[in-house]
Amino acid sequence: MRRALFLDRDGTLNAEVNYLRRPEDLVLIGGAAGALREARQHGWAVVVVTNQAGVARGLIPPEALVAIHAKLVAELAREQVTLDGIYVCVHHPDAGCRCRKPEPGLLLTAAAELEIDLTRSWMIGDRETDLEAGRRAGCRTALVLTGYGQTTAASGYPADLIAPDLAGAVQRILNGGAA
Q1: What residues have CB less than 8 Å from 141, skipping those under 6 apart?
Q2: Can you tell me the distance from the alpha carbon of 94 to that of 88, in angstroms, rounded to the nearest whole number?
Q3: φ, ψ at 92 (rounded to 5°)
Q4: Contact (CB, 8 A) for 121 and 139
Q5: What pLDDT score does 177 carry?
Q6: Which of 86, 115, 136, 169 has the smallest CB count inside 10 Å?
Q7: What is the pTM of this model?
Q8: Catalytic residue positions?
């Protein structure tokens, strides 16, 4: 079984825009693609796990979400990065589903389908829900200070490591999780 980096999307991999509705508004955070390319070169699987309640709320048409993810894949491919998967919860926060972070469902499903050892994997995100989903799945957790990360850090929510951005988190993980 292999190890993986599970990534939140908005605020971690791409800039936070409060309900990303159009592919043209997707902008990767600086250094993210290069960091993921390096992680892949070191044998890590890379999986996006994202809550997208905007679909359930009628703010994001399902076809727009597909187009956004197609652009994400294309942007990463331009930087020679491939994703092992994109796992999405489109349910409303009140739906009580098992896939919406902080529940670990997206990570558990990805792990089963992609043969990932969760105990050797990391969940990287900018919100408490990301970190909690990773913790519940048995992963180590990394908080990035992009997106809502500053607010999450100020709350004191625990993470195994805190980094300024995805590139910093990946570098520390590749160095064994050290500072």
Answers
A1: 122, 123, 124, 125, 130, 131, 134, 135, 158, 159, 160, 161
A2: 16
A3: -70, 145
A4: yes
A5: 75
A6: 115
A7: 0.97
A8: 8, 10
